């Protein structure tokens, strides 16, 4: 913390705030403090971006929403504050552990040592059979960049996992490596369904899926791929 409040106490209060352990005067005081303290709001955003060891944040948000819908005046400020935090921390955050196996290679060869920028790239997904009816969403992060959805790019492109060709005990999808050399990050998310409004900006279109992936309610896997510059 970089404000005048006590560091340890303030951090404890922020954790209690997200866990819905504050009420009454304590809740009102902290909410008022957050409204006027950019430093503490930043720390709250960092806690969310660290997603409190995974689903804990989303559990707190769900509980707050339910309490607010049931008429709890104490929960309403927390729902509003968490909504602001989500908007400020709108980047994709993927879980540290893969929910299924994901490999990357040049098309036709399961070796990624010779992948160059812009080359034809294949991702091979080895997931449990019960995931075959799930939709396939592909994300890409350039070296040092943020995640963005690269597939599907339109409603017509939507595919289920079972629609992909079988290869080596899994399913394969062909893509193109990004143009940026370095360690590229690729990810596959497998939501049960994808109902999207393609008329809204991409940052809004994928909000529900982004939340489900972070909450580990939707399985996802990440692979890091060393990519060489294009030959001169």
Note down, in words, how this protein is organized.
The protein is of the alpha+beta class and 232 residues long. 33% of the residues lie in helices and 20% in strands. It has helices at 7-18, 24-36, 38-49, 56-69, 75-88, 202-205, 207-214; strands spanning 101-106, 120-126, 137-141, 148-151, 166-167, 170-176, 182-189, 220-227. It has a 4-stranded antiparallel sheet with strand order 1-2-6-5, with no helix packed on it. The chain has a 4-stranded antiparallel sheet with strand order 4-3-7-8, with no helix packed on it. Strand 5 and strand 6 form a beta hairpin. Helix 2 (24-36) packs across helix 3 (38-49). The mean pLDDT is 80.
Descriptive terms for the model:
single chain; 232 residues; alpha+beta; Immunoglobulin-like; 2 domains; four-stranded antiparallel β-sheet; 33% helix; elongated
Q: Count of DSSP helices? A: 7
Q: Considering DSSP H and I runs of 4 or more, what fraction of the residues is helical?
A: 25-40%
- Secondary structure class reads alpha+beta
Count of distinct structural domains: 2
Number of strands: 8
Mean pLDDT: 80
CATH topology of the largest domain: Immunoglobulin-like
């Amino acid at each position: 913390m970089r404000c005048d409040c006590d560091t340890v106490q303030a951090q404890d209060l922020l954790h209690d705030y997200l866990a819905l352990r504050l009420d009454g005067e304590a809740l009102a005081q902290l909410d008022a403090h957050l409204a006027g303290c950019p430093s503490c709001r930043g720390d709250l955003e960092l806690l969310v971006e660290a997603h409190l060891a995974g689903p804990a944040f989303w559990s707190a948000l769900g509980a707050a929403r339910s309490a607010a819908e049931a008429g709890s005046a104490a929960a309403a400020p927390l729902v509003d504050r968490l909504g602001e935090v989500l908007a400020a921390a709108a980047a994709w955050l993927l879980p540290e552990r893969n929910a299924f196996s994901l490999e990357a290679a040049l098309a036709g060869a399961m070796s990624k040592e010779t992948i160059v920028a812009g080359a034809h790239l294949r991702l091979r997904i080895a997931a449990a059979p019960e995931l075959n009816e799930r939709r396939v969403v592909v994300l890409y992060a350039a070296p040092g960049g943020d995640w963005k959805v690269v597939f599907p790019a339109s409603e017509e492109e939507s595919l289920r996992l079972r629609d992909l060709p079988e290869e080596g005990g899994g399913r394969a999808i062909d893509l193109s490596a990004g143009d940026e050399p370095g360690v590229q990050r690729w990810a596959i998310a497998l939501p049960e369904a994808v109902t999207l409004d393609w008329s809204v900006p991409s940052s809004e279109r994928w909000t529900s899926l982004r939340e489900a992936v972070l909450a580990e309610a939707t399985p996802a896997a990440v692979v890091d791929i060393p990519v060489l510059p294009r030959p001169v």
